[in-house]
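FW: tagging you since you asked about this chain on Friday. Here's the raw sequence from the shared folder, copied in full. Didn't touch anything.
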Amino acid sequence: MATSTFSAGNKVKIDKNSTEKALVLPLHIDPICLLQMVERGNTTEALDLVADSLKGGLGHGARVIVSLLPTTADIEPIYSREGNERDTRYLRDIDFSGAEEWEELHRLRINMTGAQPLANSGRGAPFLRAIAAGLKEAFRIDVRSETLGAAQGSILAFLPDSVDKVERVAPLMRAAGQTVELLVSLRRLMRRASESDTRFAELASTLPGVVYQRVVSPEGQIRYSYISDNAFELFGVTAEAILTDPEALFAHYGKEYRETFRQKLIQASKDMILWDVEATIQRPDGEVRYTHAIARPRRELDGSVVWTGVILDATRIKLAEMAAAEAETRTREAIVESLSQGMLLFDQDDRLVLHNSHFIKLYPQLAEVAQKGVSYHDLLRYELASDLTRDAGIIAGTSELRDRLARHGESHLFYERELAGERHLLINEYRTPDNATVVLYTDITELKQRERKIEHLAHHDALTGLPNRVLFHERLAEAMDRARKRGDEVAVICLDLDRFKAVNDTLGHHFGDALLQEVAKRIRSVLGENDTACRLGGDEFAVICPHLTDPEQATSIAWRLLDVLAQPHLIKGQAVMGGTSIGIAISGRDGLQPDMLLKNADLALYRAKSDGRGTFRFFEQEMDLKAQARRMMELALRMAIARNEMEVHYQPLVDSKTSQIMGAEALLRWNMAGQGYISPSEFVPLAEDSGLISEIGRWVLAKACAEAVRWDKDIRIAVNLSPAQLRNSDFVDFVRETLERTGLAPRRLELEVTEGMLLQNTEANTRMLLELKQLGVRISMDDFGTGYSSLGNLRSFPFDKIKIDKSFISDLTTRPESAAIIRAILTLGRSLGMTTTAEGVETRDQLAYLRAEGCMEVQGFYFAKALSNDQFQQLLKSQSGAASNLRKKSLWS
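HL: got it, structure written out here
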């Protein structure tokens, strides 16, 4: 049954009284045949064929309806039969799915009513052409292929009863329908093709380049089958001209591109690979453009290859890249030129690409050679040749050339090279990942000079320029090793300046430094070229005398050193008396190792100083024994406090007029187990040298304060300070804590310092003494008159007391100048309001003189020696208050 109708609401109905017969014919057409028909230009003939077919097949009174609606079932002719109500329904109303998509199909209906009058009048043929025109008009409808699938449709013809045989009409109608379907399909395809061409052209016009299709025949012929209209904008050549003659475009490419283009394209067509090519083109107007072509190949059945792609205008990108590259080049050149190093850059072929001006500054003789393109080998050969500063360098240069070339491929090389004029270069050669080579030349002359200076400072004394202790040991070891091989000996001579500490303390460190420099010059002046003078530290010097065959050679050098150093030194316009003590040790007999030899020479020096200074001594075995005894004493001294071997004794300070005890000076005594009392002259210097004096000094101060607070009389206790105590920043706090802990009144404590202590770190010491005075403690200057600038010291600090050194008292009766000095000191003390005390009073005459000159206090063996705490307290109790009584009892003389 037919499933065809026209549109929703326009169903076909046949009057039941009609004797018409309906015929519905299915249409099936191959679109390829219709396309071939159109390509041959036979569209009009096809329409005429429709008309002629309809003319020959339709009778009078026929009605024709053309429908492009799909048919979904077989269609059969329907015949009417009179008297049969059921059979007289010629067409049933059939529901049409999708009718809403075909709103305009009602235009396809062609009503044939009244056809017979037209036929009788001879106008049938024009009428049929009108049908064809109607069909043509119908071609403008947008047919949706996705809905229809294959082209289908139907023609409905209603024939009057006068038509005898429907079977005769059916083939004609079927042929007509097929022709109509061909025409409809053709129109559909043409419309689609037109729309596709339009859309493609629109799309191509929006691209930033030229869209093209190029065909490469199997014979290698190249032509363009399509090229977009914007070709003129890019190439300055129209698309028509390029389609007509491809040479119109190729002629504007560069020569190199034209020579290789054909071969590359044919090869790409064989390999069927992506075409991705950049090129430069010069338009007819002279403007240069840069292009980038990208295309993909498709092989046809005939073997030809169709390339479809686009040619982009890369001019702006290329110019930007060129500008960026130029800027990068300028930046790179600026960076290279800003380097403080010389630089060479070689490419992968070891050809010079660039160098900076600093390289030419280092190698001005290579200015003509270091040109772009010169080989690494040639430039290196000239470079090494220019570095040769001596004949022997030719061999070294040849060797380095071979080494550099052999290792040239390594990732990093570095060399040091010395140029003429004591210039030094560090050469670093780097291999980049892309096998280029960068060579950097760094001028390390200043660095080398600093290294030599550092090396010199590490092995030489900064003040005198002499070798220091480190270099001394190295050279002594070398000299002793050579001596063992030769069979001779080495002498080590140690020197120590006499009274240098006093010079340094009184005249200042700058003065002392200048004296040391002068001493170093004099030592060098008397030595041979093989001898080595060294400064070991402080005022200690040493001399290494190699090639010694007779000890008398060392004696001769020692005498020369004594003579030259005994001469007065003129330092900053002031004459300073010199003098030195010397100790000598000979390798072999006095030591087999450098350290032992130096130690024994130092022991000999110590003996020379003990024997009166200004002389020299050779090392003797007994010196080592004494040194060992001294070391044992030092060990015992370190344990003395813990073993309770230290004691504080007290020597009275007596009023010179009344003989009343005004106080006492605390004096340290060491009662060594198994040895008895050790003289302070033996262990005090040892304590100072070993650094124990600070700990011992604190113990003495604390002990004296604790015992004095228990005395029956409210008298002063005087305690000597060492330089080490003043160097301790917490000493003032220690004194304060000691006074608080013991309960001793600060006014009862008297601290004694020497002039030399004030000259060491004067400002800090003076500040500390002022802080002590603020505690209420009294400050005395001990041994006044034996140092330098005593008057200046008295003026710079308000001392409470000055103590006249016992050396002046002992010479009072034998040396008139001593009496004059004593008189002057006493007068000065009175004028400054300071108490004066005389030390070392041992005779009645000395006491009488001091009383007559106005000395306020005295101390010495005339009254009493240093007493233990118990003895001193008994003395205080037994004293009646009179001087004669104290002397008469003579309990502690």
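FW: Residues 495 and 607 are 12 Å apart (CA to CA).
HL: agreed, and Residues 166-206 form the longest helix (41 residues).
FW: great, closing this out.
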